[in-house]
Design a protein that fits this description.
By secondary structure, this protein is α/β, with parallel strands linked by helices. 42% of the residues lie in helices and 15% in strands. It has helices at residues 21-33, 46-55, 62-73, 86-103, 130-139, 142-147, 176-182, 210-216, 240-278, 282-285, 288-296, 325-343, 347-350, and strands at residues 9-14, 40-43, 110-111, 127-128, 151-158, 164-168, 192-194, 197-201, 222-228, 302-308, 357-361, 374-375. The strands form two sheets. Strands 1, 2, 5, 6, 7, 8, 9, 10, 11 and 12 form a ten-stranded mixed β-sheet that branches. Strand 1 (9-14), helix 1 (21-33) and strand 2 form a beta-alpha-beta unit. Helix 1 packs antiparallel against helix 3 (62-73), helix 1 packs across helix 12 (325-343) and helix 2 packs antiparallel against helix 3 (62-73). Residues 368-378 have low confidence and may be disordered.
Length: 378
């Protein structure tokens, strides 16, 4: 952590997004190279898998384990991608995605055989995720994940109640089933049984763990790197395929934007209340009701650096299940490059954190020196 923020907790927030998760791996690799190792990793879906690979390995082995995982799950399609223009590349990606649909992803999921018929009782999913369990058991030291220095939170939703929940290694011991539950996106993947209840992918309710981090930690200052895999902004679609991709981006990115904006509004309310209390007469200022509200209105200093995967023109609506080796490597390098753009001028990180919340979008097109997008001050 830089001198100006060395007392802050470093948090890595990882959104869901399937095959796009290799972008997060590239982000993490670059962060480690600039000594920004996280104290807390919160993830949903593929973000939960990456979080477990990070926290469940020693510092010096984390990038190697991420590399091993992504090399494994993309080993089904290892051919080089054509360099013949966006149109040909888009068709190649669609074929690679079709191969994933037909064959699954090695070490991750495989089609259930005989195929599931949706009108008959049976498996509640088209793919078997037993390969993922074996991969997680092999690549992760679960004692280190649960007892080590890095906090881990993974989001899930209860199939029967619809309630959203975070499983957290500071509250209970986590195992492969908790990580798999966070990534059990229906109808592709079946729900995961934990303590007598079935759980699905947390992205069904919220695709970003940012709200959980802000709700749980209200005392320590936070330096948050929020890694999003679906951009909220995009061009007007011109085809059905582009419309499907745009729908996916809006569906999985909107809650990220909503949660960030809600947090800023909440901090404004807390600041206004504290200003009002200062104007109260002593007999009201010392009342039990005011003391309770002041406890709620405590605010920490928060800096959120957003790292948002920006679509390539050839990506297409299948981008989250296109598990080719070539595309994975491109996503990974994209994540590395975005981090280097974020920290290329470290002045914003070296300065003392400002009271309230400051949000930076440092990967937007045309971004140069980091400038606050939103700011709340006391």
């Amino acid at each position: 952590m830089s001198k100006g923020n060395e007392a802050a907790m470093c948090v890595l927030v990882l959104q869901g997004g399937g095959a796009l998760g290799s972008y997060q791996a590239g982000v993490f690799e670059a962060l480690t190279e600039v000594d920004m190792c996280p104290d807390w990793v919160a993830g949903i879906s593929i973000g939960a898998i990456n979080a477990a690979l990070i926290a469940g390995n020693p510092v010096e082995q984390r990038v190697a384990r991420l590399t091993e995982f992504w090399d494994l799950v993309t080993s089904g399609v290892t051919a080089a991608a054509p360099q013949l223009g966006d149109g040909i590349r888009r068709q190649w990606n669609q074929m690679a995605a079709a191969m994933t649909v037909a064959q699954g992803a090695p070490g991750f999921f495989k089609p259930i055989w005989p195929p599931v018929l949706p009108w008959l009782k049976g498996p509640i999913g088209y793919y078997d995720t037993a390969p993922l369990k074996a991969t997680l058991e092999r690549l992760i030291d679960w004692d280190l994940l649960n007892d080590g220095p890095v906090r881990v939170s993974v989001g899930t939703v209860n199939v029967e109640t619809g309630n959203f929940r975070y499983f957290d290694n500071r509250e209970q011991r986590l195992g492969p089933e908790h990580i798999m539950a966070s990534g059990a996106l229906p109808p592709g993947f079946p729900p995961v049984l934990i303590d007598g209840e079935y759980w699905w992918d947390g992205g069904l309710v919220s695709n970003t763990p940012l709200d959980h981090v802000l709700e749980v930690e209200q005392e320590r200052d936070l330096m948050i790197f929020q890694v999003d895999l679906f951009p909220s902004r995009g061009p007007m679609p011109l085809t059905i395929g582009e419309a499907e991709e745009r729908v996916k981006d809006i569906r999985f990115s909107s809650r990220t934007r909503q949660n960030t904006d809600s947090n800023v509004r909440m901090l404004r309310a807390r600041t206004a209340f504290k200003g009002l209390v200062a104007k109260l007469p002593p007999e009201l200022r010392d009342s039990e009701e005011v003391r309770v509200l002041l406890e709620i209105a405590r605010e920490n200093r928060i800096t959120i650096a957003q790292l948002i995967y920006r679509d390539k023109s050839w990506a297409g609506e299948a981008k989250d299940y296109e598990f080719s080796r070539a595309t994975m490597a491109e996503h990974w390098l994209h994540g590395r490059d975005d981090v280097m753009r974020t920290v290329h001028d470290a002045a914003w990180m070296a300065q003392p954190m400002q009271q309230g919340t400051v949000v930076y979008d440092l990967t937007r097109p045309g971004a140069t020196l980091p400038q606050p997008k939103k700011q709340v001050k006391s």
